[in-house]
Amino acid sequence: MPTTITDAAALDHTAAERVTAIIEDAVRARGAAMVSLTGGHTPQHLYELLADPRQPWRARILWERVHLLWGDERHVPPDHPDSNYRMAHDALVAKVPIPPEHVHRMRGELEAEEAARAYELDLADTFRAAGRTDQTFDLMLLGLGDDAHIASIFPGSPVLHERTRRVAAPWVPHLEAYRITLTPPALVDARRIVMLVEGPKKAEAVAAAIEGPPDVLRWPAQLLRAAGDRVEWLIDRLAAQGLRGQHA
Ligand code: 6PG
Fold it and tell me: Whose CA is nearest to atom 15 of ligand 1?
């Protein structure tokens, strides 16, 4: 799994370039870019950079050819402060000329299982309407939890064993909340997966995910090992400080 280690200030610019290049390649090759966004705090500045007209990336992206989808969502309405959709809307979606019908949020305001079912239908419809015969994302952007969760697949989650459904609605005990999340089949078969990880609190999870002994139940990000070189880790030096092998 390729790993790029930068200082924190450069991380978002590196990520903006990588995301833009992947989108450009997808549009050239397939006429559209099916992009799954991550939530949390780490990607917010990246989204702002992509939307900033003073930066090179906004103009390079053919927004009318991009479909934005999400890797996971909290079980809240879209205007809730915790909503991943709301964060991406405010930082990116509201600032770029993407057709509204190309923005496919998980409907966190619904009962969780109903939201998961609805998103599976939306995924199928969206990929079909884009002329795809599969549901392979062109870009899967993911963050990493301190516990090495990806999307909303947390350590010990039953979703770790899901091999058929592409969207699930697990109860997350330590959060005492439902989440809506893509499942391993949906996450891992993406053409390109970009992990965006920053800060010292992630160092243990980064080392376990990339170099640790196999234990995907404890370290869900180890799911990404199945994707091989389709995964690239963009990590700042503090998040990388636990790496010892050739990735360091
Ligand atoms: C979410 C995210 C989640 C996130 C990690 C890291 O809904 O919170 O999708 O998977 O990427 O928790 O979050 P931070 O970027 O806030 O550290």
Answer: 42
